[in-house]
Amino acid sequence: MNHQFPGNPSQYLKIAIVSTIAFIIWLYGGTALILWLSSGETWLLGWKVILAVIVFALWYCRYAYRWMMRLDGQYGSGSGWDLSETTVKLPEIRTSNHSKASQGSRDS
């Protein structure tokens, strides 16, 4: 499965911003509208709730952008990177004759 994911960072940022705005309008706007129309509740329109929504939107937009950049690195224009496997042989530990002789003298 080697599909290309074309684009560039500025395009991904625009997609992240637009999708975040649409997501927030759909979730927050829909919930506030339903609560306001059904029971007249307006607590969702307070400044603390709106501040929490703005902080969440900024966090969501940042992580959506990072996800798209990683996806591009894995399947898109950045997928041409060559990650070749390298094998390294580590030196073996040698036991010297001197240490074997000293162990033999202790046993006696």
Features:
108 residues, 3 helices
Explain what you see.
There is one protein chain. This protein has three helices and no strands. With 108 residues, it is mainly alpha-helical. The protein has a domain of 73 residues. The longest helix is centred in the first third of the chain and has 31 residues. The protein is elongated. The protein starts with 8 loop residues before the first helix and ends with a helix. The mean pLDDT is 80.
Helix content: 55-70%
Shape: elongated
What percent of residues are in strands? under 5%
Mean pLDDT: 80
- Rounded to the nearest angstrom, the distance between the terminal CA atoms is 68 Å
Stretches where pLDDT is under 50 for at least 5 consecutive residues are none
The gyration radius over C-alpha positions equals 30 Å
**How many strands appear in the DSSP assignment?**
0
Count of individual helical segments: 3
The structure class reads mainly alpha
Order of helices and strands: HHH
How would a textbook summarize the main sheet? Answer: none
